[in-house]
Design brief:
By secondary structure, the protein is of the alpha/beta class. It has 3 domains: about 130 residues, no CATH class; about 130 residues, 3-Layer(aba) Sandwich (Cytidine Deaminase, domain 2); about 70 residues, no CATH class. It is about 30% helix and about 20% strand. The protein contains 12 helices and 15 strands. The strands form 3 sheets. The chain has a 6-stranded antiparallel β-sheet, with helices on both faces. The longest helix is centred in the N-terminal third of the chain and has 14 residues. The chain binds zinc ion. The site of zinc ion has 6 residues, from loops.
Length: about 350
């Protein structure tokens, strides 16, 4: 589950703003000291669960204190998703920049750079810069795909799925399939969104499961119960047991759509799909082992095709072999290689 280290709030422009942030947000001054005479103030908000209400409060404050800049640097750590951050810049009652994470951890030097950039060059006040960015459905699905990609090779025998929940143009919750395939991405995202999930719009890289083998409520039941308004799934779940989630959601009154960025989503789970279709895992020649369940290591005397089928039955979906090896040549010659990833 998501754990948070808290968010940085940086205010710039008015000395009166700092006490208001402290009072309205319940934030504490950050360990980093504001330089004397600097128009900057740094705060630490340690209320990860209520970050949407923090954003709302800060937008209102930025409306009350015209021509001040407030930056929220979200910093979270998650057991299933690597560290993730968002940077929201607010000015005159609007979010003027919303920079979603491109992955990786926000380091103290990245935060320092941001401070410096704001101190040296406050965001300009042109009408264009005041425009609240409107994210497209593709932007949100791309974020869900990025979450899913980070879990490739860590979730077998299940597919790696990413889920993002949005409301009023803002991210309210997200998640990716946990290690070993549980929890499912939608379960994490619904918990992450908390009570705001009601009426939300869901972007998920695979249609939510209709049933669970583990006996827990399926993701389609969890989402219907949470009363989300809309759901976009990138592609169908071909697993015979998990299928029919979309039918259930539609029958429960959720507006569902299927196929947004289907090709990208199918690439993420090509191994899962191939096992269902053929009984064989995805096999790639690749230097980088990070997105695979494991390396293919033949057992002496066992036919490669037979070995791959056995591994698929054992729950392996994505395998790799290193390039320029005898094994790579043998498997390529046997037509068993699906993909050659160039460095
Ligand atoms: Zn599920």
């Amino acid at each position: 589950m998501r754990r948070s280290k808290g968010s940085w709030v940086i205010a710039h422009g008015s000395p009166d703003l700092a006490p208001r942030i402290r009072a309205d947000l319940g934030a504490v001054p950050a360990a980093r000291q504001t330089p004397p005479g600097s128009p900057l103030s740094y705060f630490l908000s340690s209320r990860p669960r209520s970050r949407s209400s923090d954003i709302e409060t800060l937008v209102k404050l930025s409306a009350a204190f015209q021509n001040t800049t407030i930056v929220l640097v979200e910093q979270t750590f998650d057991e299933t998703v690597s560290a993730d951050a968002r940077r929201l810049v607010m000015l005159n009652g609007r979010i003027v920049h919303d920079l979603p994470s491109t992955g990786g951890e926000i380091t103290s030097s990245a935060v320092e750079d941001l401070f410096k950039r704001i101190a040296d060059d406050p965001p300009n006040l042109t009408p264009e810069s005041l425009r609240t960015p409107q994210f497209t459905a593709e932007d949100w699905m791309n974020r869900a795909l990025a979450l899913a990609r980070r879990q490739m090779g860590k979730v077998a025998p299940n597919p790696a799925v990413g889920c993002v929940i949005v409301k009023g143009g803002q991210l309210i919750g997200e998640g990716a399939t946990g290690y070993g395939g549980r929890p499912h991405a939608e379960e994490i995202a619904v918990v992450d969104a908390g009570e705001e999930v009601f009426g939300g719009e869901v972007f998920v890289t695979l249609a939510p499961c209709g049933q669970r083998t583990a006996g827990r409520p399926s993701c389609s039941h969890v989402l219907a119960e949470a009363k989300v308004a809309r759901l976009h799934a990138a592609c169908e779940d071909p697993h015979p047991f998990a299928a029919h989630g979309l039918t259930y959601l539609t029958a429960s009154g959720v507006d569902t759509s299927l196929g947004l960025m289907r090709d990208e989503a199918q690439t993420v789970n090509c191994g899962f799909f191939k096992v269902i279709r053929t009984g064989l895992p995805w096999l790639a020649i690749d230097m980088d082992p990070s997105r695979y369940d494991r390396a293919f290591e033949p057992v002496p005397g066992e036919d490669h095709g037979v070995a791959l089928k056995r591994l698929a039955r054992e729950g392996v979906t994505r395998m790799f072999i290193r390039p320029d090896t005898k094994l790579a040549f043998e498997l390529t010659a046997s037509g068993l290689v699906d993909e050659i990833v160039s460095p």
